[in-house]
Design a protein that fits this description.
Largest sheet: 7 strands, mixed
Helix content: 10-25%
Radius of gyration: 27 Å
Distance between the termini: 75 Å
Order of helices and strands: EEEEEEEEEEEEHEHEHEEEEEEEE
Length: 288
């Protein structure tokens, strides 16, 4: 028999019967801990059973609680207290769902991590990213949480390959903040074979010079220039800029070609005019 639920902010009290005894689990979420106190009813009084069970929140920024605590009964017949919290930091957003097993006093959690998206009506947040499900041990609890993630309109799942590309692009932009301005040199990044940048490069039309190949690819809203060394099989992320949306009014990175063994030319259109950037792949000097 389930008793009425009492909600109070991020505190939650759940009464339940086990045999002939009445028990209660009190859950409270702070900005650092999920804490559960367990009680058994003796006459008209509640007596605490054991010590409080605490589970630390793994945070890198500011925590908030967009959803209320509730009760979940899984297909295994067990009852859980279900909670969630949102971690906002400079790296992005992380939405965590957790379950507390009232019988075994165990916690299970999964997180959905990624970048914030523009919210839709009625949404407190929206994230484009990936769940930690692939990294966890499969269980009834993690399967249930993963099903909630998949059904949650606030969570937009992308591939691991795109997630890696986002990371590489973000690294390049952070290390070359004035590349389209007054910068006179650029830092190069590397990409892995499991990223969508790598896949796009393999499919792209390439310019070649000696052991080097170069191409422009449009991935994840950006135009990126990648250079491959066919001898070492390494791939360098040489250039990144926002993808052109209007070729009549915006700069459009049309192609790349080699001026000599070390110099890569980026050829642009802007309306009816053209211009070029040159990058020395040996010295990383940028000429405009």
């Amino acid at each position: 028999m389930l008793c009425p639920l009492l909600l109070c902010g991020q505190s939650f009290s759940y009464e339940y019967l086990k045999g002939k005894k009445t028990y209660r689990a009190d859950m409270e979420i702070s900005d650092s801990l999920v804490t559960v106190n367990n009680y058994v009813k003796r006459g008209k009084k509640w007596k605490q059973e054991g010590s409080a069970v605490a589970f630390p929140l793994t945070l890198s920024g500011t925590v908030s609680f967009p959803d209320s605590i509730s009760v979940a009964v899984l297909s295994n017949g067990k009852t859980y207290l279900e909670y969630s919290y949102l971690d906002s930091s400079a790296e992005g957003l992380s939405f965590t769902r957790g379950l507390y097993d009232i019988a075994d006093f165990d916690f299970s959690e999964l997180s959905f991590n990624g970048k914030p998206l523009k919210t839709k009506e009625g949404q407190a947040f929206r994230i484009e990213g990936l769940s930690s499900y692939a990294l966890c041990e499969v269980s009834d609890e993690t399967n249930y949480i993963d099903s909630l993630f998949k059904a949650d309109a606030r969570l937009v799942q992308i591939s691991q390959a795109d997630m890696q590309s986002d990371s590489y692009i973000q690294w390049w932009l952070e290390n070359n903040p004035d590349a389209m301005g007054r910068a006179r040199s650029v830092e190069f990044g590397t990409i892995s074979e499991t990223s969508s940048l790598y896949t796009a490069f393999n499919k792209a039309k390439k310019a070649s010079r000696g052991k080097l190949q170069a191409a422009v690819v449009d991935v994840r809203g950006y135009s990126a220039v990648i250079v491959k060394n066919t001898k070492t099989q390494s791939h360098l992320l040489v250039w990144v800029e926002p993808e052109c949306k209007n070729r009549k009014t915006q700069r459009f990175l049309s192609q790349v070609y080699f001026q000599d063994d070390n110099t890569l030319v980026l050829f642009y259109y802007k309306g009816n005019s053209t211009f070029k950037y040159r990058i020395n792949l040996a010295t990383r000097v940028l000429s405009k």
